[in-house]
Amino acid sequence: MPRPNDVAAPRALVLSAHNGVRLYAVDAAASSLGLAPYMTLSEARALVPELATAPADPPGDLAALLRLADWAGRYTPLVALDGIDGLVLDITGCAHLFGGEAAMLADLRRLLDRFGLTARVAVAATPAAAWAWARFGRGDTPADRRALHALPPAALRLPEEMALRLDRLGLRRIGDLAQLPRAPLTARFGTLPGERLDRLHGDAPEPITPCRPAPPWRVRLAFAEPIARHEDIAAGLDHLLAALCGELAAGDQGAREMTFRVYRVDGSTQALRIGTARPLRTPGLLTRLFAERLGEIDPGFGLETLVLEAGVTAPQGPEQDDLDAQSAAEQATREAQLIDRLVNWLGPDRVRRPWGVESHLPERAVAWRSASEPGPPDRSHPAAMRPLRLMPRPEPAAVEQAEGRKLATLHWRRVARPLVRADGPERIAPEWWRAPDSATRDYYRVEDAAGRRYWIYREPAGNWFLHGLAP
Amino acid sequence: MTTAALATLRAELAALQGRRSVASAPAIGLGTAAVDSLLPGGGLRLDALHEIVGDAAATGFLAGILGRMRHRRGLIVWCGERHGWQEGGLPYPPALLAFGVPAERLLLVEVDRMADLMRAVEDSLRSRAAMAVVAENMGLDLTASRRLQLAAEAAETPVFALRRSQGARIPPTVAATRWTVAPDAGSRWQVRLERCRGTDGAGRQWCLEWNDATLCFDLAAALADRSGAAAE
Prior knowledge:
heterodimer, A: alpha+beta, Dna Ligase, domain 1, 5 domains, six-stranded antiparallel β-barrel, four-stranded antiparallel sheet, B: alpha/beta, Rossmann fold, globular
């Protein structure tokens, strides 16, 4: 529901029905002027001539409510639609993750307010009590049963007409109904009031039907400060994978399908789903499966909650994966030990691994960084047209050109090498923000009479350099 | 005595000596039947020392072999001296990737002295963290090569000694294979199998080129075609 405008112009949404145009929803200003849903538009206009109206969009509202239900999955996987304007959240066992029921409710209220939604929220022992308190109570939660009993019978979710009849009989409070013997009440009003009372008190179960079936394998991670960097998202996912795989292992299960859900600060959600051919619970392997798709996540203004669910699982004994995981872990340990040994012996600068870097310049596209630095090296892009050997620094060279500007002889390291073949130029321009210290280069792949292949380039000033050797 | 019985006896003898028989050792082929059929076990043994002699072309041949081994687990430890790299250039990962080499698993180890090179290679083998170890410009003689061969055998990890010394005489070693690789026109190589323990394949020469679609070495057109290629 849109928040009432501070300017307090009364507004209403209208819907055409077979019996004329009627109000569908009204804002606070309109409500205070005596307007209510179901009133015909002509009646409303007679009362409040300045009423602003817009057409209602019930399918759109339902879609929005479903999106809100998705978002509410950040609190609990058990979220159900309640009518056309309500949500029921089963927070059993979830509230402690948010620091208790009161803190959870405060968080919910704060975020709904940020989305610009006017909402009434309550927490109670049963769905019926929460429903009643959210609509008729005051405060977060009914203090006790007496507080609930002070609410009008309409809070039992009885049909309007029945609530009216009860009211006429002087039964103005739920407590009045609760005191009546059940038999005459049933004789007069049917079984509904009794059933509703039992649900309110928790004497009869009230199953809720979640929008999504709750996966039994689910872990979540919430952030005090929203995250947006992909490294942080990846780190969060790794954390969740480790946690979920631990739980799966404890249950002798492996995941066949996993869903990674992210909750953005603007209330929207995104999900990545992966499937596996065989049950898996090795975090490293699952990380790799997600890694390719992680770039699809658009964090917008930030993510506040990450949730990882194993939607489909299958029994998985302790042996096979632990063998994989164990040997993978052993391998990682062995690699780390070798790197440690070499680094401690030779020094960190002399034991290096390649990191792919975004750069057009060949010497910048790979950064050799100390292997003692944490983090796996990036993968750079394959480039068949590049030389297998790159000189640590481009070396000055000279090229004689025959007529027709054909490259005839390469002079490098005091040896003249007659050229039989030259391909190029391939123009490589440094990134514009680095322009001051580097010039555009025209690269040629040349081959001498002995079949040796060189990678040379010319700068605009006409200087030649040898940069690499091709196999 | 039949050939089969002889082979069995040889295998038993090898087992008694605590050594793998030549045929049962895992090997990686070049993907070219003409070459692989001449190698014991159908390829380069993965628990042995191999020597590759030549310039940048030799690096290309090695890159192809490493690319064919890409499914093995572990680091590619590439050991060398700084001045050697200044002379011949550093291996360049983007180009290695084009050979199928998992270049992100490269570990470049720089040493100052020949003795350190031996130790770096031995440490890497002993760690069992490497899928292959490359030693650049290592002055191998009979003794040093025997040390490396034994270490490779124990670790079941191949060592590739890449040496640039062309022209100079290379002392004999116990390496399982020795190849010399020379560039040929049009991104091809003249690959010569100089030595090969266990078969009589030594002395053969092929014109090979790398097929980056199949990640195999292909037998390039026969020498007779060279004149045509050069004339293009």
